[in-house]
Amino acid sequence: MPDLEIDLVDQFTCPPCVKKNPELRTTWKRRCLYGLRHENPSSPSACHKPCRGAFSKYCSDECGIKYMQLRISQWELDGGKRDALWEAVKHAEKREGVVVRVDEGDGRVPTAGEVHINGTRESLLGMPSKRRVEWEVGQLNARLEKVVKQREMIKLDMDMVLWREKLVTLAAQRAGKVDECGWDQRLCFGKEEWTDFGAEVLDSYEEKTEHGNDAMHVDDTSSTLGEWWCAGKKKCERHAG
């Protein structure tokens, strides 16, 4: 068996078993469509991985994109225009599922494009403009909610970056005033620790400044953060690079 075909084997049946039981056969997985449409499907440069079953004809999104690029390039060679193609598909949306309920009263099976809304039989093609607008508004609101969530996550990440930048500045200023390493291990705080202790970390520097430089290397006894600064020598072997 060629090495390129190993990934396509579903269930292998050895030749001696096939000889004893002729009905047995080695079963194979369906190959990625991008590999099958390659200019040389049997070459090592072609994709030889199995597709994702009922979910996709391709082994990965990458192969799906490459196959579409291949088709577009071939379409251009046949006289097609890329700009015209983009104008035709740039507003395309993902297909939405529609639930069709069978009316048991008359035993009639709904025809294609027919849907029951509030107990009445209506056509999707003939949907009133008002209901169509409401549907579109619902779709836009759902997208807006996703954008708002993404914005909040980005804002949270930016706040953490600004906090860490300020903490680096304060730690550097403190390290220049004390005769010790001064590395602040709170610089390694993750998002959860930053959410719980972020403001308190910056306050600890302000408290030490108010008490003077001599007390800056001693953590406040009222603080629950503990001692965070490295008290090693100025050229600390661990934190001096």
From TrEMBL:
It comes from Pisolithus microcarpus 441. This is Uncharacterized protein. The lineage of its organism: Eukaryota, Fungi, Dikarya, Basidiomycota, Agaricomycotina.
